[in-house]
Sequence to fold (151 residues):
Amino acid sequence: MAQQPTSDSIIDMFTRLGQTLPIPNFDVDRIIAHHRRNLEALEQSARATAEGTSALMNRQREMLQSMISQATENARGIKLSGSPQELMTSQVDLARKAFEAAVENAGELGTIMQRSGSASVDILRERIKTAMNELQDGFNKQQGSTPPPPQ
Fold:
């Protein structure tokens, strides 16, 4: 059995190990660019979410102001004189209008939230799709094959 020199440093040992093992080469610039695009997509998604939240809050404020002014106007229009039936009818009518406005407003706010969430998810979904294609291309280049045609 041949005897190995005992003066080898740990660095020399790892160098020899790296030369004998089939470890793939890494394109660090490509990896950094890949992750940069991931972070940019996250930033765009967060921005879309923030814009949607801002639009939602602005619309809620507008709705609240409208409801307060409508309630004030309705309170001024209530006739305190009259029969109990007339008073009850006017109160039921005011309650019905308030309920209808609340349902309409809730529907509008739901639509704003849905659009905001969809925009954010679409950005991330597109980045994931692109990232998977990038990984597949990198694998195909490493294997020396050509990628399958897109479907």
Q: What stands out?
A: Helices lie at 10-20, 28-77, 84-143. The longest helix spans residues 84-143.
